[in-house]
Structures are given as C-alpha cells and as structure tokens.
Amino acid sequence: MATVTSLARPRSGAQARPFNQVFAALKQIRRGWQLYLLLALPVAWLLVFAYYPMYGAQIAFRDFLPGKPILQSEWIGLENFTRFFDSPMFMRLMKNTLVLSIYSLTVGFPIPIILALSLNQLQTGLFKRTVQIVSYAPYFISTVVMVGLILQFLDLRRGPVNLLLQSLGMSPVLFMGSAELFPSIYVWTGVWQYTGFSTIIYLAALTTVDPALHEAAVMDGANRLQRMWHIDIPGILPVMVTLFILNMGQVLNVGFEKTFLMQNPLNLATAEVISTYVYKVGLAGGVANFSYAAAIGLFNSVIGLILLVSANWTSQRLTEKSLF
Q1: In this predicted model, what pLDDT tens digit does every residue of 88-139 receive, in sequence order?
Q2: What is the DSSP string of 141-190?
Q3: What Cα–Cα distance (Å) separates residue 306 from each residue in 38, 47, 312?
Q4: CB 260 within 8 A of CB 148
Q5: What are the DSSP calls for 294-308, one per residue?
C-alpha cells in the first residue's frame, strides 16, 4: 500500500504543476499589470489587422465572388496560382520587382552605414547638426508630396535638372518617360528620402561602442579608417545583420504608393511590379478578380518568408548572428 501511494504522489504533483505555473503567471501579470495594459493595444492591433485577415487568404484557393460567404465559394485549389505562373506578365513582374528590390538593397543598405560612421567621427558642432537635419528632413515628407517633387524636378520643360542640362549645352531628357531610367530614379530618390532616418539607428548603435577601445587604438597608432573597420563596424554588426535580414524579407514588397504614383504608359515596362499589378487586377480592373489578386499576393508573401528564413540561416552560418 505504501508503494502504491509513493508511486501516485509524483503523478499528482505532475498534474498540479501546470496549475502552479498558471498561478505564477497570473501573479506575475497582476504584479506588472501596467506594463501588460500598455502591451494590450499593440497586441490587439496585431490580432485584428495581421492575424485575423489570414482567414481571408483562403479566397486565393476559391472562386470567390463579393457578397457570397467565403466558405460557400467553390474550392478550385491551385488554379489561380497556375494561371499567374502561365501568364505572360509573370516573368515581367518578377524581373521588375527583383530589379527594383535588389537595386534598392544594394545601394540603400550601405549608404546609411557609411553616413553614420562619418558623422560619428565628427565632433558636435554646427556642421554635424546641419548634415543631420538636412539628411533627416526628407523622411518626413509624405510619399505623394515626394513624388510630386520628383515630377517637378525632372519635368521636361521647367524642371531644374533639364534646365541645368540645357545651360550646359545638352539636350533635355524625358526622365519620367524613359523605362530604362525608371529603376535609377526610383532607387536614388529613395536613398535621398530614407538614408537620414536609417542613419539614426546606426548612430544609436555606435553609442554602445566602448570609448576605451578607441583610446587604446589611438595609443597603438591606428588611424580613423582603421578604427572604423576594426572597432565601429564590429560593434554595430548585430544591428547591421538584423536590418539586412528584415530587408531581405521585403525584397518582393516594393513600395506600392511611390511606384504607382510614378507610373505612366511610357515607363510601364519597368515600373509595373507585383504590388501595383495586384491592385489593378483586384480593384482597378474592369472586372475585379479578388481570388486571382489574392493568389498573387499570397505568392508574394510566401516568397518573402522564404527569403527571410534563408537570409537568417545564411547569417547564422557565416557570422553566428541571426534574428531568430
């Protein structure tokens, strides 16, 4: 009888353990309820606007019609995906999206790092504050206003850029009507708009670098470039890796607003990307096809997830630093 009782006690303890853990968790929540109350609003936003819409992603596999419940729509499987892959627009959209994304990542990722390293070497003064204000300001301009400025600057007749070219004896260029120039215009205006704000993150990371390392390097005769390479860059490497992985996950998510506003019939050959095509097929077309547009958008998201996980895995193997 004693043996049976001794064997039963651990089992009852194992059954009580989850209740103890729940009780401890509730006690911890009660102790810091203010923090959990602050967390409640962003969690609610995430559930409503990020997770709940996943229920509607199933229309990519159905023949969905507005006004008809999703679950009552006919299940057609991968038919919408096959239609997109067989479409003549598939290769064009993939090429344009990848060109803009990789071009933006190649140019836009290192420039904020270089600017942050350069500003970090300057002493606090008027020049440093002026550079920071000038570089940060474009970020706070809305996308619509930014595109309006771009169109005015590059106007064929009255644009400052073409007026400068004419003053130098050169012929004016129809910038916004050239499909070949669209990727460069999109990317470099994005660099102008976002470099300053991205620099803030790296400047904040540089403040965590131990000044004693720089003092020791100066004593050993290291110049500024050597200190940047051997002290500053390793110090902000985790931040660089994290932002690079996040950017890789957004490779196919080229900004819809800016691309759509800069499009015109003359540059559409390189300006049409997945996000704008989804809008035109799903909403702006003569006959809205929600299922087909949802399939394209879901394909875009899955590829982004694969790229994010791949970049994280590669970073873990090469640098032993990763996002998760």
Answers
A1: 999 999 999 999 989 998 999 999 999 999 988 887 778 888 888 888 899 9
A2: S-HHHHHHHHHHHT-TTT-HHHHHHHHTT-----GGG-TTTHHHHHHHHH
A3: 32, 23, 10
A4: no
A5: HHHHHHHHHHHHHHH
- Cα 162 to Cα 47, 88, 167, 217, 235, distances in angstroms: 49, 36, 9, 49, 44
pLDDT digit string (tens) for 30-89? 888 888 889 999 999 999 998 898 888 899 999 988 888 888 889 999 999 999 999 999
Two tokens at 320? 């032993």
Residue 282, pLDDT above cutoff 80: yes
Q: Say which residue the tokens 């130098």 belong to.
A: 168
In the chain, alpha helices (H): 2-31, 33-46, 79-86, 89-108, 110-120, 126-136, 143-153, 160-167, 182-206, 211-219, 224-227, 233-248, 256-262, 268-271, 274-279, 290-319
CA neighbor of 277 nearest in space, from 291, 297, 302, 261: 297
Reported confidence tier of residue 174, pLDDT bands at 50, 70, 90: very high
Alpha-carbon distance of 113 to 298, in angstroms, equals 33
